[in-house]
Amino acid sequence: MAISTLSSSLALIPNPSHSFSPLSNPNLLLRISTKPCAIQAVRFCWTQISPTARKDERPLKVPPTVLGLAASVVLFLGFGVRICSAASTQLPPVVGQEDRIIKDTEDEELEQAFEKWKSKTYALTVPLRIVALQGSMPQSWVKDFMRSQGKRLKLQVNFCGSLEGIFSNLSMPFNQVKVKSASYMAADLVGLGDSWLSFVIKKRLIEPIPGAEEQDWFKCLSDKWKVYLRRNNEGEIDSEGKIWAAPYRWGTMVIAYKKSKFQKHKLAPIEDWKDLWRPELAGRISMVNSPREVIGAVLQYMGASYNTINIDLQVVGGKTAVQQNLALLGKQVRLFDSTHYLKAFGVGDVWVAVGWSSDVLPAVKRMSNVAVVVPKSGASLWADLWAIPAASRLETDQIGGRIRGPSPLIHQWIEFCLQAARALPFKQEVISGASPSALESSTLSEMSEELLKGKPSLDTNLIAGVPPPEILARIQHHMSSLIQNLVAKATFKSDVN
Q: Which residues of 397-433 are buried (b: 16+ CB within 10 A; e: fewer)?
């Protein structure tokens, strides 16, 4: 291409004896425009070529050296040269010197702006905001998840001191005209206790997890979890319902007691719920203020299932007997308070504390001469769940992009929390509770054999936060019975309607 261009250019170069006028209409324009300034300065403008000069103009001779330079530049630049002849196209009028200076300045400014734009880095970021219960997950999860997602992730994690605090903040936007971005309702995922699940569904504070059934994390859950998480719009377990939450840890109700006090007063260790009714412990017990847990303890004491649905039919003596034993427990318990029951236990005002393992285990690790047991007849299970706030139905523009739906990374986060590697902090008792996979008896047996080789740091029958296999089997049996009854009840109600 360069050789043909050179031949054409040489054919058009006038004889040195010919003259041209810079003011005449152009017949040929040769312009060399390249990026380097040194080459860009070399430009040739050929105007009207005629054998003789006009009468009113002084002939201008073109030295042979200039012609040689022009040919050399054409040969050197090759594809960078464009030659426009009068035979092929009509050329624009000659631009004056001032116009050329302005145009050159504009070209330089555009080129500088383009180079500046190219130097910028525009990264695609995907936001994900999570609100979790303080102490419910290790801080390493945040760092590990950010590392796994790369720079495209913009993660924000907020921690709240209590589940009640999360629920209170979650309810607040529906009572206000404006919703700020700091509201928990603006988060993509919030941590909730399973005891709150039915209520927040019924109050429309959360929305179903989209596409949960097609996700690997849901397929890997045991059938117990799948049945428990599937609810209708009233929050009731329903085999035809939607998936409203995803578990990331669970635990059980436990009883903690001060061994030093029991040894001093020669009291037998606590093993089961019936020990709470011993006369020598009157006024020496603190307990969470939860009707579910208190009534459950009474039912267990009476030999009934913790998950009894119909008390009159399933409990000897019916509601009357339950109320009598509940009144006796009220005399035994000095304090019913979900916030301060462990403080009273810590300062020695009470000798026994009854509460959730997520509260009790971290607290007693800072104490001495304390034992923690899961009642051998069984206990209730608790679970912490991830749920999506129902912000999509709010008519407001105060919470940014979240109004258009939850982050596309919610499934990646849930999948991450349920990976086998995430169970290690629970096994090492860094975080109280257990991974959802630990609810399976086979997994529990393998884990117990491994961890029983070393001496536990705490006097307890819990194994890495999980009840022993024989107690867990009783709990699962009661849990299965409860789920079957609830599913049957929901199906019957649906058929009637």
A: eebeebbeebbebbbbbbbbbbeeebbebbbebebbb
Q: Based on the number of CB atoms within 10 Å of its own CB, is 236 exposed (0-12), middle (13-18) or buried (19 or more)?
A: middle
pTM of the model: 0.68
CA-CA distance, 354 to 285, in Å (whole number)?
Answer: 8
Output b/e per residue, 288-299; b: 16+ Cβ within 10 A: bebeebbbbbbb
Query: And the tokens for 135?
Result: 């102490």
Instruction: Compute CA distances 241 → 209, 213, 227, 233, 235, whole Å.
Output: 12, 12, 9, 8, 9
Over residues 231-239, the mean pLDDT reads 91
* In contact, 372 and 256? CB cutoff 8 Å: yes
Question: Any idea which of 170-184, 244-258, 355-369, 427-441 has the lowest mean pLDDT?
Answer: 170-184
pLDDT bracket for residue 177 (50, 70, 90): very low
The Cα 355–Cα 294 span in angstroms is 10
Main-chain phi, psi angles of 199, to 5 degrees = -70, -45
